Amino acid sequence: MVKAWKGAGEYPLIPLRGMLVFPSTIVPLEVGRQRSVSALDEAMSQDRFVVLATQRETRVDEPGPGDIFPMGTIAEIKQMARLPGGNLRAVVEGIGRCEILEYTAMDPHIRVTVREFPESLEHDAEIEALVRTVKEQYEKIVKMSKKVPAEALIAVSSVQEPGKLADTVGAQMALKLEDKQALLHETSIRARLERVLEFINREIDLMELEKRISGRVKKQIERTQKEFYLREQMKAIQKELGDKDDKGGEVAEFRQKIQEANLPAEIEEKALKEVDRLEKMPPMAAEAVVVRTYLEWIVALPWNVETEDRLDINEAERILNEDHYGLDKVKERVLEYLAVRQLVKSMKGPILCLVGPPGVGKTSLAKSVARALGRKFARISLGGVRDEAEIRGHRRTYVGALPGRILHGMRQAGSKNPVFLMDEIDKLTSDFRGDPAAALLEVLDPEQNLAFSDHYLEMPFDLSKVMFITTANSTHNIPKALLDRMETIFLPGYTEEEKIHIGRLFLLPKQMKEHGLAGANLEVSDNAIKEISRRYTREAGVRNLERELATICRKVAKELVKGETEAVRVNKTNLTRYLGIPRYRYGTAEKKDEIGIATGVAVTDTGGDLMPIEVTLMMGKGNLMLTGKLGDVMKESAQAAFSYVRSRAHDLGVDEGFHEKYDVHIHVPEGAIPKDGPSAGIAIASALASALTGIPVRHDVAMTGEVTLRGRVLPVGGVKEKTLAVFRAGIRTMILPEDNRKDLDEVARNVTRRMRFILVDHMDEVLRVAMLRPGFNEGRQSRDCFPIPEPATGCLPMADQTGP
Ligand code: ADP
Predict the structure, then answer these.
(1) Active-site option among 679, 686, 690, 720
(2) Is 679 a catalytic residue?
(3) Which residues sit with their C-beta closer than 6 Å to ligand 1?
(4) Which of 196, 377, 433, 654 lies at a CB distance of 3.0 to 4.6 Å from 370, suitable for a disulfide?
(5) pTM above the 0.70 mark?
(6) Are the beta carbons of 761 and 713 closer than 8 angstroms?
């Protein structure tokens, strides 16, 4: 028999874990704890009423009064069943809110006295509106959520009573336990509805947010999937096309190479950053190509690779001598460097500049230095370099940018301390694109080249261990600042004896080896070599000599292979058989003394050479003609010589008005070759004087020197080259300015010993030596071989009183 709930009384209590039963809801319960089972049993045996109250902490197994919320629900047991294992299952219906007043027993189950909790029920339009809104909003939730069953909506919409509505919705929604408990505690129905509405709205907001997020995630996934798909497709296409581009492998390879290259820390960091960039790029992107080239450069450069120097001086000396004859100065300098290097552990590389005409062995000597030091060798040519970027590279933003020649050389060398040859440093030019010399300054400055910056690399590269050797044909065109930084060593060229030596001991064996000839096959006599250097080549160095010897080797090889002969001996007489008729007259010395011709000397690209000067007089009106492709300085020098001769006409015994009756033509033969410089002054003046006086100039005297209007003779450059040229040409007397005396020290002793130098201050002395009165000169001292009045400086009318 069921009794009605009277609003107060003493009842058994079941503590609930993690759930709450609202009034006017029907809920299934499963009960396992001993006390709860006992409580249910008792309720069943009595009036079926039981108090359901929620535990504060779900973990507590045997809760006391303090562990249970003081507000609960009085419920009626609708059904009960025993489950196997002793548990009970019951279906209960909440009837009303109740407040726990007192715990009357704890065993065998909890008993409490309770009383109904008063609700304030006001009916007005606002409640009405709240009810409607709650229903509408709840409907929205049901529609939006796939989790709430449609029946829940029916249950809610059928409820009319406002308080009950709030409870039903609260029970249906998945609220936090505290929120549910708060709803249970709410006595004001208006407040309870408002609270429920707040929960509903919060839920709607959350659901909308969820929807937005999941939409975004979905889009993202779709995009990645699409990209993945396209990439896979691209790979398949590349594979079909046979492009073996597996970027993963490439990137890993770069990483490994960078690790192995033992780079300085900051370089390694930068390189790895570039690898990361490369990894993110599609393999075919133009940018990827740029990064790849850049990385290849970084791993290829010898950042930390250093070869060990051969410190055995004697061995180094042996190697240097093995490769080259003579050239003692350079060899000595290299050995000195080695010696100091042994005493000082870390030492900056020296910067040598080898200056001399072509073919004197500058390049091959540098190679030999590398061999002697046990270093790698790199070579670049600076001829025609006019752009700073050729030295320092282009910035990476340029299409096809690469590092400059310096780093190319370093890469080629493969170590950071090579012997680095820079050929033709005197052939640098500069224009609007920047000055390459300025960039070279940085390379060659020991203070700066520790951190040489290349535009492409954008990282400092250490050049301080490099041994730089530069070469030039002359120092005139080397920018001053560059010249200052280098140690200049002159290689002026070889004498005939030296050439014979070099030919016999170095060039011929080398060429024979290259042509596969053994010593038994070919022999070339010293006389033949001398003949080659005299009549087949005209040079200060030995490059053409080597070429001619190669020609002989070639021809002999042919004869041998054809079986025409077994061994050949080349001498002066059969030389034409191999080399054809001689190309040059030996020397260009005139054969006999002539009027109006004087022998000057010039410095040329190939060393020095004789430069005959011709002067002819023609009836005319005093015009001065200059031909032979003369430069401005040389023209002026010719005019000065002319004026000097005019001013001395009286002393020379020449008609003082000659310049009004004659045209004077000065010509310097071999007209196609440009000539310049003031050093032909005394030769021009001599030729003129000779033409005017009719006294011949000695053909066996060569001369060089600048002349002033007053006849003073000024010093000139290139004495070494000129002396060798004169000697080569077979002339043994040479007139030189007194001020050039010191330069003779630098000319090989075996040349100076066999020549006679006449050092002069004044043109009068030149004329005295160079011009001869027939039958008057032989076997006499130079000082009195005279056509002109006795000298006594100062007594001549227009002698040098003021000086230039
Ligand atoms: P450069 O660089 O001065 O123009 P090279 O170095 O090209 O001249 O020399 C030309 C050739 O002459 C090379 O084969 C070189 O070995 C040879 N040569 C030059 N000087 C000597 C020397 N003193 N001893 C041996 N060979 C030499």
Answers:
(1) 679
(2) yes
(3) 324-327, 358-364, 471, 502, 506, 541-543, 546
(4) 377
(5) no
(6) yes
